[in-house]
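Duplicate of #3305? Posting structure anyway:
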């Protein structure tokens, strides 16, 4: 039976070139792109274990997931999408973020759900200045990314894990996934339009950013513009010379995350930066590192609050800084616990914010609260 005789959404299979289908009862294709092109909207494509050197474009609602191997046939094989031989070629221009090459492009559709697939950006050969690289790019699209693994997205300071950019109403969820060895951003949500993009980031591990510190300026999670959503229960381990999380004009809730903001000998780094917006930062645990800052606040908040966080410093770390990146105003900073921050506990402007009470545990030689 040929698939083009079918008109209903169902389950189909993609399998690596040179292999056989891992389920003889399903219609099979030897590339992911061939399966995407052929199946009806709303279908599920189960991808058999193997290596897929492809750049895939998805422009219809569907689910792309690793094939579920029976327990009697279980192995350590994974579904791995690699860069094609010779490097990445397919790219798009997005009005928010510019030129971007991606291993999977989800374009103007949704929902598109991606689960249990690994990505490796090695060998992308993108010329300097030609564009950024992402494992998955949701462009004006919605969907869920669950249980993926992303590694080696290195592109001269432009390598990223999951990117969502939208000026139409879209929701993207990234959960239970692992991101390591990228040199720009782990997860990026961006919009130019009010209340258009909701980005939920839950229970992910983001580590080894900045290609082991080679590139200075890497961030784990970055929300640009009025992005809403919940950033919850993630582990961010190391931020290179950048920020573990950046909230730039967004209106999100950041809660119950564990952030290790720097390495033992790392350059200056910070846990969370909030630049204005209406963000709620609560109940996070932050190790600010030897010469880093737990939380940096700047700009004018519109209802923003920083409450109930626990920040621990290192040999020279700081707690909360409301002066270093520009004076902050409109923030409520209360109920935080700041421990062993030899630089200072809280640095703040003389007025314009609510900054008490907080709890400080520092030695007698350390200033608890200082002015700008």
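Output from current build:
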């Amino acid at each position: 039976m040929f698939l083009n005789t079918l008109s209903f959404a169902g389950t189909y299979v993609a399998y690596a070139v040179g292999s056989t289908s891992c389920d003889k009862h399903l219609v099979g294709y030897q590339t992911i792109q061939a399966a995407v092109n052929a199946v009806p909207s709303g279908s599920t494509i189960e991808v058999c274990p193997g290596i897929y050197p492809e750049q895939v474009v998805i422009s219809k609602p569907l689910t792309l997931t690793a094939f579920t191997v029976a327990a009697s046939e279980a192995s350590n094989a994974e579904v791995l999408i690699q860069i094609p031989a010779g490097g990445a070629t397919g790219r798009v221009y997005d009005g928010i973020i510019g030129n971007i090459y991606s291993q999977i492009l989800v374009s103007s559709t949704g929902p598109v759900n991606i689960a249990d697939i690994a990505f490796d950006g090695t060998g992308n050969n993108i010329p300097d200045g030609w564009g950024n690289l992402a494992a998955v790019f949701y462009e004006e699209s919605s969907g869920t990314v669950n249980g993926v693994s992303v590694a080696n997205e290195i592109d001269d300071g432009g390598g990223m894990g999951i990117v969502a950019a939208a000026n139409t109403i879209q929701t993207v969820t990234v959960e239970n996934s692992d991101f390591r060895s990228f040199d720009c951003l782990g997860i990026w949500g961006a919009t130019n339009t009010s209340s258009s993009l909701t980005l939920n980031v839950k229970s992910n591990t983001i580590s080894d950013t900045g290609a082991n510190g080679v590139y200075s300026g890497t961030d784990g999670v970055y929300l640009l513009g009025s992005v809403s959503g919940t950033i919850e229960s993630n582990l961010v381990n190391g931020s290179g010379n950048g920020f573990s999380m950046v909230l730039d004009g967004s209106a999100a809730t950041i809660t119950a995350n564990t952030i290790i903001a720097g390495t033992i000998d790392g350059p200056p780094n910070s846990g969370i930066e909030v630049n204005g917006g209406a963000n709620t930062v609560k109940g996070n645990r932050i190790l600010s590192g030897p010469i880093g800052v737990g939380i940096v606040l700047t700009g004018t908040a519109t209802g923003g609050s920083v409450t109930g966080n626990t920040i621990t410093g290192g040999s020279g770390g700081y707690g909360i800084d409301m002066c270093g990146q520009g004076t902050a105003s409109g923030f409520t900073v209360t109920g935080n616990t700041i421990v062993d921050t030899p630089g200072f506990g809280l640095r703040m402007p003389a007025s314009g914010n609510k900054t008490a009470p907080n709890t400080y545990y520092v030695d007698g030689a350390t200033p608890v609260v200082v002015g700008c």
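Confirmed duplicate; merging threads. Residues 1-6, 210-217 have pLDDT under 50 and may be disordered. The first strand starts at residue 11 and ends at 14.
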